[in-house]
Amino acid sequence: MEILILLIPLSVVIALGIGVAFWWSADDGQFDDLESPGQRILMDDDRPVAVQKDTTQ
Amino acid sequence: MNTVASAYQGEAPAVVREALSCFHCGLPVPTKSHYQTMFEGRMRPMCCVGCEAVAKTIIDAGLAAFYRERTSMPVTAANPVSLGNDALFGLESVQSNYVARKGDLCTAELYVEGITCSACVWLAESALHRVPGIASATVNQVTHRATVSWDAGRTDLPALLTVLQRVGLSGQPATAAAALAVRRKQRRRALIELGVALLSMMQVMMFTVPLYLSAHDEVSPEARQLMGWAAMVLTLPTLLYSARSFFLGALRDLRNLASFNVSMDLPIALAIAAGFGASCVALLNERGDTYFDSISMFVFLLLSARYLETLARESSLTLIERLTNAGPAVAWRIAGFPDDRSGVAVAAADLAVGDVIRIATGEMAAADGVIVDGQSAFDESLLTGESLPVPRGLHDPLVGGSLNLDSPVLMRVTRCGTQTVAAALRQMTEQALAARPRLVQLADRVARWIAPVTLLASLVAALIWLAVDPAMSFPVAVAVLAVTCPCALALAAPAAQALATTRLAREGLLITRADTLERIASASDVVFDKTGTITTGQISINVLLPHSSVAIANVLSIAVALESGASHPIALAIAKAASAHTAINERETPLVVESACVVSGAGVEGRIDGVRHRLGNLPFAAAIADMLTTPVAASLFLATDGALLAAFELSDPIKADATTTIATLTSEGLRTHLLSGDRQDRVAQTAAALSIPAAHVRAQVTPLQKLDYAQNLKQQGATLIAVGDGINDAPLMGAATVSIAMGRGADLTRLTADAVLMSPHLQPLVSARRVARKMNRIIAQNFCWAIGYNLLAVPLAMMGKISPAWAAIGMATSSLVVVANSLRLARK
């Protein structure tokens, strides 16, 4: 059970790290809108712009 | 030319009318429309020039992915870009309201209208990002709000608004950017406090639960001690950060201790501090119980209840915010109307009564007014809750904040600034939300006593236990501090009230007094006025001519001339009927009336070309003319010396949902009454259509007779809701328990009613009663819960039957229960 001596402080550090990460992300506004950022990644248009231009009158 | 493009060259670029709906907006394409756009090699049909321009811009800019990915169509067709309006936002005076400046970096919040799916969000962001000089642009899909920063040297606000408009969305700068920023910061802060407490609670439990579950010798003493310390360290963020507000509140309470003004923050902070202190002592001495897990759970559950309550209040704040933003900041003033139609842009705040302004398609009316030229359909949903467009033509009133959907109109301003309907609505909503109903006041008073009583009870329990069993003294004192829960009183009642008020406001019924909802719930009778309440109040006129030799246009122009200057519904109806006849509009000079005089209750008399004319009721007109044949249905007559020129039939249609609303009210146990100053036969006809019993109907009554009727009912023990126009019915409304005024067209600033019905429908009356009853029920349930819980828990805690840990859990759960119960009001 000696491993606990290492694991417990480690888990405290990790938990505090998660807390800081959460604090930063909430302060940065990442929880303001939980909908569009997830869908935004699907909207990336990789096709070359020229194709669109050529087909337009 | 690349391969993809050349592959399409074989196809004839014929217009493909797949569904005959506009490629951009989905509306039907008129058969003669020649607007079209090439997309993915095919010509797509477009409904109008606006949509064509927008689609072309989107595709040209390489944003065509919008059309592939979108999941819903725009609400309306795109509007042609109106550059001038946006150019005005460049004015320093106008901009200062909206733009926050830091050196060269400007930031503004924009409302983006027209967002229906995530593709629109992407479209707006991508379009903005392509503007040179943009630092950042993010659009929130939930609030439809964009935060945009740009370099002031390279672009400006008008350019950004134009970019949005070019892709078929419209942006409006959101006012009070500073207030918004403050609120957003508070919301984030609350979320962080809640999240930190949650994290801390879960992690602390990771260390404490194994100890509860393990046998005594299963974990070594060193590990046990270490886990205790870990729990303590992880409780610190909760204690120092999340629970800050409780300690700050407690400090304030300590300063106010002398005036006996103590909130629940003090007992809560004492319980937290005492629990933490005792746990630390136990940890150092390596014996005794620790409460780290209960402390973090206590704080987390309390914060959850507060967070939920804040969300409930947010919804009402959003409503106020939307009303604040009703109407644009700029308007086109047409100084030379009607000769010169060129407009000058002015700030909306500078408009004065009497100004003529142009409202372009897609713009909002900047003030209240009357249409003087053109006709269009308007979206008034912001003010009335009515989602369908409303047609508005010549002489029709417009309220500021209505969105012009069809074609440009000119409007003469009748009210502006703080006098507008929107401003009055905002003020009334704020008032109603700030007001504290009797029930909430009572809850406040009781809650104020609970904190001192708790402190006292805790002290008494501690002293008694000191004599009985000194070891129990401290835990009992902490348990009593933690277990008392006044949240049902302090948190839940205001949340319920805010939710109910907001929900009704969305449906078009504005509550203006604090106790209104409570009184609506207990009503037994509803008294309706007829004209403008049960009926639409939009009188239409039908001309019945005695001789075929007289032209309708002539008759109407005489009637218009006689009624010129009057603004009552009949005069407006005549003016409207006249404007439908183009012959009158083409007449060079209107008829001149000399020595006009109004005979109250009879009609109007005047001389036209020296000949006496009368327009009024039958006896009035018959006094100067021979009435040979009188049409039965007619109620208004136009006569000249010796001859009847015309008779008019007036009709005022019943509101579409009046019958069902009254049937629903009746089936819910309310008695309905109809009082009207109108003629007996017509009132009886209306009452029959609505199935209001004849005994409850009075026709041809004066306002004072209405008052008598109401007082009679009250003497019989009835609780009255009076529904009327709020101005002619003032005595009746004053006597009723609850008065509900029709908000349409009336001067809201002069209304003195308990509630104002903005919606053109009567349906919100039914909702009001249901919501009011539900609110009363929920508040009563919360009170019962609070009283039951405290009566049970506090004595048990004083007897030492509840450990501090369970006291904390019980109290926090109780507050969550009552707040969650209140939130049920938001559900339909």
Plain-language structure description:
The complex is a heterodimer of chains A (57) and B (828). With 57 residues, chain A is mostly helical. Chain A has three helices and no strands. Chain A has helices at residues 3-27, 36-40, 49-54. The radius of gyration of chain A is 23 Å and the shape is elongated. Chain B is an alpha+beta fold and 828 residues long. Helix content of chain B is 49%, strand content 17%. In chain B, the strands form six sheets. A seven-stranded mixed sheet of chain B has the order 17-29-28-27-18-25-26, with helices on both faces. A six-stranded antiparallel sheet of chain B has the order 9-8-10-16-11-14, with no helix packed on it. In chain B, helix 16 packs antiparallel against helix 28 (763-798). The radius of gyration of chain B is 34 Å and the shape is globular. The chains are: A mainly alpha (57), B alpha+beta (828). Chains A and B meet through helix 1, helix 2 and helix 3 of A and strand 1, helix 2, helix 6, helix 8 and helix 9 of B.
